[in-house]
TrEMBL record:
It comes from the Bacteria. It is an enzyme of class 3 (hydrolase). This is Nitrilase. GO terms for molecular function: hydrolase activity, acting on carbon-nitrogen (but not peptide) bonds, in linear amides; nitrilase activity. CDD domains: nit (cd07572). PROSITE patterns: CN_HYDROLASE. The keyword Hydrolase applies. Transmembrane segments: none annotated.
Length: 264
């Protein structure tokens, strides 16, 4: 299966971001991608966290979901909408949600980010997603062309037990890592999660200096089950492409059957 991971530098303007999304999904499909993944916050990188509240959609409604469904159907691909804000019933917060649309444009899976990022460097860099986001509670994996595909988002990468519970063949990790944490830990975490689970991993990311002053690390990657980086986009908009080879997955798991040796 041909995988594509899209890197963006999203802005505070929803419709500008949706046009860039359309451009890169069209490009990925033209290059033969069958599964295309967008980064976290692909639709909006606001001036403040509360901007998410203004563009939040109800499930099944709104321009963000309409575009994802349209593009999946138009190209006959599986499309992961990195994250978008969905309204949380009974709450003034939003969920940070990944939605997967199938080749006919139908919704196939939903995952609400479980682990909400918080970071305070002591040097003026501070984040707390819990101020406006409602944490999810349910791990999610879905079947895609015979592959068990695990959904996760950004900060989830620091919690390996999530992936162990999902027993994936392919891990999805759309992200918007800060430059500080990404420089230190991004590649390390991606390769570790792939190796631990002997799984392919696709990690589309935000990558550059945003209009709100935030700088994201980028380095969108696709990693194979042996921890080898198959494709990488260091910074700026771009497209990482690689092929998921079922024979490679089976060969690695046969040579190193550690998944069968688990005792805890």
């Amino acid at each position: 299966m041909r995988l594509a991971a899209i890197q963006l530098v999203s802005t505070p303007r929803l419709y500008d971001n949706l046009e860039r999304t359309r451009h890169w999904v069209n490009e990925a499909a033209a290059q033969g991608a069958e599964f295309i993944a967008l980064p976290e916050y692909f639709c909006l990188m606001g001036q403040s966290d509360t901007d998410k509240l203004g563009v939040a959609e109800a499930l099944g409604e709104g321009p963000i979901q309409a575009l994802l469904s349209e593009l999946a159907r138009q190209h006959g691909v599986w499309l992961l909408g990195g994250t978008l804000p969905l309204k949380s019933e009974g709450s003034d917060k939003v969920s940070n949600t990944s939605l997967v649309f199938g080749p006919e444009g139908q919704l196939q899976a939903r995952y609400d980010k479980i682990h909400l990022f918080s970071f305070h460097s002591g040097l003026g860099e501070s984040y707390d997603e819990g101020r406006v986001q409602q944490a999810g509670s349910q791990p999610v994996a879905f079947e895609m062309k015979g592959l068990r595909t695990a959904l996760s988002i950004c900060y989830d990468l620091r919690f390996p037990e999530l992936y162990r519970a999902l027993t994936p063949d392919l891990i999805c990790a759309p992200s918007a890592f800060t430059h500080t944490t990404g420089k230190a830990h991004w590649e390390l975490l991606l390769r570790a999660r792939a190796v631990e689970n002997l799984a392919y991993l696709t990690a589309p990311a935000q990558g550059g200096l945003h209009e709100n002053g935030r700088r994201t690390w980028g380095h969108t990657m696709i990693v194979d089950p042996w921890g080898e980086v198959l494709a990488c986009v260091p910074e700026g908009e771009g497209l990482a492409l690689a092929t998921l080879e079922l024979r490679r997955l089976e060969a690695v798991r046969k040579a190193l059957p550690c998944l069968q040796h688990r005792r805890l």
